[in-house]
Amino acid sequence: MARRRPRHRELKALLGVAGFLLLAAGLHGQPPQPEQPVPYSHKTHLAMGLKCDSCHRNADPGEFMGFPAESFCMSCHQVIKADSPHIAKLAAAAQAKKPIPWVRVYQLPKYVYFSHRVHTAAGTSCETCHGSVRERDVMTKEVVHNMKSCMACHTAAKARNDCMACHEEH
Quick one: which of 103, 112, 109, 106 has its CA closest to 129? Predict the structure, then answer.
């Protein structure tokens, strides 16, 4: 029995479905970006002279870099873009002392121990793990964080690279 060759219309439909599936699977080259409650441009803020640790504090014990307090943002935004509906949302959160529910772009599994303080003290820059943030209007996940990438970085930096470095109880 001879196999029937697909017609042009069938091929076009199959290609359309395949393209949709590739997009849906995130195979189009860029991971989907999370929807943030308030738009924020790292590019704009860093160009004004802010540093990463101006907004992202590293409270003890130093594992996490926090999100800025809304009152900190409002120290400039009482005047700058004060008429923006996004800044109005920020102002309301600051007044109510309720944090903006930012969506984390990077998050390691709970079974991995990671200290921002240890890494920054060792000279690791924010860009090493988070990409060219200073060029981004929208933060997206552009650096892969997995065991292979972390071990490669540790090898290159001649840092401790045994299992217990990241998987021990702290």
Answer: 106
H-helix or E-strand spanning residue 141: none
On whether the CB atoms of residues 80 and 74 are closer than 8 A, the answer is no
| Residue 170 scores a pLDDT above 90 | no
Q: Is the Cβ–Cβ distance between 111 and 147 less than 8 Å?
A: no
Half-sphere exposure (CA, 13 Å, Cβ side) for 86? Answer: 9
* DSSP of 57-94: ---TT-S-PPPPPHHHHHHHHTTTTTT-HHHHHHHHHH
The owner of tokens 């004004």 is 48
Q: Which two tokens stand for residue 38?
A: 């308030």
Task: For residue 46, give both structure tokens.
Answer: 């860093």
pTM tops 0.85: no
pLDDT tens-place string over residues 82-136? 999 999 999 999 999 999 999 999 999 999 999 999 999 999 999 999 999 999 9
The total of other beta-carbon atoms located within 10 Å of residue 94's CB is 20
